[in-house]
Amino acid sequence: MKIKQKTVSGLGMALGLLLLVAVGLISNRRTEALVDANNWVSHTLEVISDLRQIHADLLQAGDNRRGYALFHDNGEMTRMIESITRLGPDVAKVRHLTADNVRQQARLDLLEPLIARREALLEGSIPAMTGGAEQSSRVRAVFDQSKTVLDGSRRILDEMEAEEWELLTAPPQGPAESAGTEVTGAVRL
Asked: What is the pLDDT of residues 70-80, one digit of tens each?
C-alpha cells in the first residue's frame, strides 16, 4: 500500500510540475506576443508621425516662401531652407522603417521626385518674386505648379498613412503577400 501511495504522490507531483511548466510556457509565449504587438504598434505610429512630418515640412516651406514674398524677411527664407533640408532625412527614415513593405517603397519612389520638384520650385521662385511686376505671371505659374506637386505629394502621403492605419488592425504580412498590390497617386507634370 505504501508503494501505491508513493507512486500516486509521485505522479501527482509530476503532474503538478508538468502543469506548472505548461502554464509558464504559455505565459511566456503570450508575453512575447504582447511585446511583439506593442513593438508593431510603436513602429507603425512612428511611420505615421514621420509621414505627417514630411507633409508639415512641405507645407511649412511653402508658407515661408510666401512670407518671404510678402515681407522680404530673410528669416522666412532661412526657415524655408530648414524645412526643405529636413525632407531628405525624413524620407530616408520612412524608407528605412518601411523597407519590408513593397507598396510603401513604391509610393516613396513616386513621392521622392515630387518632393525634389517642390524643392526646385520653391527655391527657383525666389528670384522671380524679387523681379518686380514683369515677373508676376511667372511667379503665378510657379505657384500653380508647386500646388499641383504638393497635392500629388499629399495624395501619396495620405495613401501611405491609410495603409499604416490598416496595418494596425491586420496581422503582419510577409513581403510575398504584399508584392502584387497596385499603388496609385502618381502625378504627371
From this structure: 888 899 999 99
